[in-house]
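Continued from yesterday's entry.
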Amino acid sequence: MAGKIKRMSTIKQLLSLHSNGQGIKYISRHLSMSRNTVRSYLSKFKTLQCTVDDLLKLDDPILEARFHSGNPAYSDTRHEELMSLLSYFMSELKKPGVTRYLLWEEYKIGRPSHYCYSQFCFHLDQHAASRRPTMVLHHDPADKLMIDFSGKKMHYVDRQTGEEISCQLYIAILPYSGYVYVEACRSQDINDFIACTSHCLQSLGGVPKALVTDNLKSAVTKWINMNLTSTLHLNIWLITMGVLFFRQGHINLGIKELLKTWSK
């Protein structure tokens, strides 16, 4: 387990896969982790004398201390004291004007052997990450095409008039490969939605088994008791293309990453 410490959300997935009978090779491939690292964590798990269920119930900072108890950072008495304060610090950060530096200044009062600012921020980040659990989602090739509009409008400039014109950003993602298709269009109405999706499928050179969207007004008329009703025009087009239609919000992560890249 030398090198960078893995996020405990990933280690919890490792333990879950191990308890389900998955081998080291499978775990390594699905968690993008070296086989030696997987072996190291499993070896440490055997020495803890705990069940997988017991470890999965622990908060991430506590679980991390279990797996890295030999690390001086976790045997230090300062660590345990800081852990008891992190929930308070996280709640304070939500208040206007409160910064990490201000909280660190507060933390130092009465603690001559306090953590330095960088270590304080590190443990704060670790605690925040433990409150944002993640999991690995598995997808099959050509199974789904996830579609949504970015929500945030983009703009382009007419070279002849100099006018700044706003446009919508249509985004489609193949979750298995991570391939992204992006197209600017005038609006989010059904005609533009169908046109963009047609262009996307033509670009891909094929049709997936299903289209998956969020609550697009251009595509969804009702979403009641887990039953989805799509618009009439979309229904006709779907029948013609031979694909199913589902709703899901998975694509939002792809949109955030795309906008983050374009904003740089």
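--- second protein ---
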Amino acid sequence: MRPTTLIVLCALFLAPGAFAFQDEANPPQDDPSMIAYQTIVGAFNKKMTVFQEKYQAAKTKEEKNKIFEIDYPKAADSIPGMMAIAAKHPKSKGALAALSWVVQNDRKGDQTAKALVIMSNDFATDPGIGKVCLSLTRNRKLAAAQFLKKVIESNKNKDALGQACFALAKWHAGAVKTLKSISGTNTTMAKYVAESAGEETVSYLKEVGGKTLEAEALALFKRVETEFADVPYYRDRKLGTSAQGSIFELTRLSIGQVAPDIKGEDIDGVKFALSDYRGKVVVIDFWGNW
């Protein structure tokens, strides 16, 4: 089985909301907001377990496809209930957990902006909001950037502040790529990316421009490297290391820049350097087996 297939299957079997408040598996019995949240999450996870068992037991590709179409739980079905929790129990622990779940699992993005506005107003100063910020590193909606800016402006917790800075830096770096895609010659891709980002986001990106977006990304990454290098990112990784990699990509690997020199041996064992071919057209193919 090819690595890409394994990745897809692993993604299917991971329940949504991986960042969201896993330590609340046993909510206080006197907290109605968390009880309501865990009721919805529990029902969703039960459906996911049923799907996994059926999918893994299926013998043929056709059976698996049919099971996926029928039994794979749709996060969209749980989103209205999550938003209702936030409305009924404003500023509660359950409201934060529910809104975070929506942001992480709203694939279409229809409710993400609403959830982020509520979190900006009610939870931007929460010490634990950094987990939500990190879940937005690949979100391209303008509402995500606005939320992250609010956290940076108002939160005093070092971890939350650093995680918000890093996420906003990633947002700006991603926005540069988004702008290039919607301005490119591939009209099909441009249309898809524009629709995914949304009209408000596209309008903002065109107004600001790629150079400004890239400069803001670089400034934020450097701030993370300087002020928040020891802040946790993912598993054992720290923000500083990740920020350094992103800075290198922005400053050394962008189109139009001089490529970093690469040294090695060819298939005949002859040593070479990329700089040996300066002035010539060179195709570099990086590959590996896992």
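Confidence is low (pLDDT under 50) at residues 1-24. The chain is about 60% helix and 0% strand. Will compare against the first tomorrow.
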